[in-house]
Amino acid sequence: MRPDPVAEPQGPVAASPFSANERDAVYKAIETRRDVRDQFLPDPLPDDLIERLLGAAHAAPSVGFMQPWNFLLIRDRDVLQGAWEAFARANEEAAALFADERQALYRSLKLEGIRKAPLSICVTCDPDRAGPVVLGRTHNPRMDVYSTVCAVQNLWLAARAEGVGVGWVSIFHDRDVRALLGIPERVEIVAWLCLGYVSELYDQPELAAKGWRQRLPLEDLVFRDRWGNR
Fold this sequence. Notes:
The chain is an alpha+beta fold. The chain has eight helices and four strands, in the order ααβαααβαβαβα. The protein has helices at residues 20-32, 47-58, 77-95, 100-108, 113-116, 143-161, 174-181, 206-209; strands at residues 69-74, 119-125, 164-169, 188-197. Strands 1-2-4-3 form a four-stranded antiparallel beta sheet, with helices on both faces. Helix 1 packs across helix 6 (143-161), helix 2 packs antiparallel against helix 6 (143-161) and helix 3 packs antiparallel against helix 7. The longest helix has 19 residues, at 77-95. The protein is globular, with a radius of gyration of 20 Å. The mean pLDDT is 95.
């Protein structure tokens, strides 16, 4: 994807609200976004669609405007099989951490995105992108990673608007994916995303639908002025 040409500096523009339909579409994307684990269709995603999704990710906010992200597009079946094998090993380790009924429920969850989705994207964070001293990162060195997660969220919401499912795979040893993709040690792996058209989406988060965990009440999570004050 070619970078946009450098634009001439311009002053602020009017901060008018969206129309009601535009606003509702934003909230709909947020509220109906799902972490897809198994419902992927094999149909390839068009190149122009992928470019729009990457453009949305690249439009994310970043501390010091450092833009620390990279996006590794992975379609090679051998590479995807290697990623699935790394996941499968780690998934067995994860299952063993749960006991009895919880372990049975964990094992019943279908986690087939790597093998079923036509595209995977490994999102990484390069801490050296803007040099050793970055505006806004001077006192919190993790701000580059937080910025990269914003890019993931942008891509996810854009994908929902495009009718594309996304699944975030986090169960693997970093060293396995690093070796598989040749990622330098200084670059942090943030997300392995599986992307593809989907046959259906749950009307609520899948883990809630399957009884793993329910959404917490918002009022229990909001404090006023000091920790614990409601």
